[in-house]
Amino acid sequence: MSPIKRKCLSAIAAGTALAAIGALAAWPAAPGRVVAVAETSPSVLARQLAQGVLSLHGGGPLQTRLSAQDVRAAKTLARGITASAGGAAPPHTAECRVAYKVPCFSVRQLARAYGVDNAHRAGWTGKGVTVVFPIWYGSPTLKQDLARFSAAYGLPAPNIEVRKFGTIPPMPAPDAPDAPFRYAVAEEAVLDMSLVHGMAPDAKLVALVTPGNFDGPDAGYAEILHAMRSYARTHPGAVFSQSYGIYEADLPARVLRGLDRQIAQLATQYAATMIVANGDTGNTSGTSPDPAVPWPASSPHVTAVAGTRMHLTDAGTRIRPDTVWDDSNGIGMATGGGLSAVFARPPYQKPYRNLVGRHRGVADIAANGSGESRVVFYSTYNVLGGQIDRDGGWRRAAGTSVAAPLIAGITALARQAAHRPLGTLNPTLYRIVATPRRAHKFGIADVTTGCNSVPGNQGWCARPSWDPVSGVGTIGDAARLVPALAGRRTSGSSG
C-alpha cells in the first residue's frame, strides 16, 4: 500500500475526514527534553473519532489500527455530542454549547467575524472567479450536499462543475474495507467546497476528480498534478484549494523536488494561486516526536494555512483575539507549523531568517481550525463521530482542512477585485505585513498567543509578526485585506 493511502486510512483511525496533514519543526519555547510518543492507544483513537477533528496520522492500514472496540468506544464518547443525522436545520451555536460543551459556528458567523460580509457588500463575492478542488475519487453527492448546505444558510445556489480524469470506482457499502477512506475523501470534498462557497458565494467551484492510483513512486500525486495542469492550461489564474498532503519524510527528496517543479510551473506559467492546509498534529507526523513537514504545504509556491481558535459570541462577534489552535484536550492534535527539510527559504521570508535559517518556514497565514470553534457543514458520507455511514447529516469539523478553504474563499474575492491572476500569493501577503502598522491597515490580525505542543514535542509558539504556528496572522478585516491582496488602493468592485 502506498504511503499516502496508508496514511489516509490511518487518518480515519484518528477520527478524520481525508485531511490536511499536520506537522513540523520547533519554535524555541523553553528548552526541554523530547520524549518518545507512545503507540496510539484504543482510548485515544476513540477520543479522536468522537472529536471529529480532521487530521492525518501515519501507521498501518485501518483494519490493523482501528478495532470494533475503538468504534464502539467512540460512539459512546460521541453520544449526545454529534450533529443531527439528517434534520433539515443545522445546529445553532447555543445548541452546540449545551449539547457538545463547545461552540459550533456557521459560515455566516465566520463571514461576519472576518469582515467578509463587508467585502460582499463592497461587491466582492467571487463573481467571475473559479476555485478548483483537485481530489481523488470525489463524492457522488457533492452537488446535492452543497445545495442543502446553501439553502440552509441562505446562500446562492452553488455553481459546481465536476471533471473526471479517468474511470472513478463506484462508492462502496459502509462495511466494505475501503469505505472509510472513500467516505473520508467524499466528506473532505464537500467540506472544502462548502467553506469556499460560504466565503465566495458567486465563485464557480470545480472538482477535478482522479481515480486514486496510489501505487506509484509519487504516492498518487502525479495524477493530481496532471489534472491541475490540464485545467490550468485553459483556465489560467484559477485559485486551487487543497486539504491534504504527505509528509516530506515519506517520499525521497528528489521525488518531492520533481513534484514541486510541477507546482512551480502551475504558479509561474499558468498564474495559479494555490492554498494548502498545513496539518493537524503539531510539529510532528503524529506517529513520532521528530519534526515533520507536510508537502505541498512546504512548497515555496503555495500559501500554507495554519489553524486558530476563534473566540466569538453566538452572533459571530469576536470577544477577544484569535489564538493558536493548541492541543487543549491532550490528544496530540494541534495546528501544524515548522520548517521544511527539503525546500530552502524563499525570498519573501528573508526578514525572518533568524527564525527559519535557510529553511522554508510553514505556515504563511492562519484561519479558524480548532476543535473548540468547529464549523458546521452537511455531508451524505461520514467518518466522523465514531461511525462510518452514508445516511446524511449535519457535521461539525475542525482542523486545517477547515482553515485552508476559508482562506481560499477570501483569496477568490481578491482575485475578483484584482481583475487579473494573482499567481503565488505569498510575496504580496508578506509585503503587506512588513510592519505591524501596515498589517493592521491591510486587515491582518496578528496572532500572538498559543503553541502547537503535542505529547513528546514542545512545538512552536506564537510571537509578534510571523511565526510557524500562525504565519503572518489571521483575517482581521477581509474588506481591507481583499483590496490589499489585489493590489488596489480603493474598496468596492465587481466583475
UniProtKB/TrEMBL annotation:
Protein name from the UniProt record: Kumamolisin
Cross-referenced PROSITE patterns: SEDOLISIN, SUBTILASE_SER
Peptidase S53 domain location: 104-487
GO molecular function, one term: serine-type endopeptidase activity
GO BP: any one term: proteolysis
UniProt keyword Nucleotide-binding, yes or no: no
Residues in the signal sequence: 1-25
Organism: Actinomadura pelletieri DSM 43383
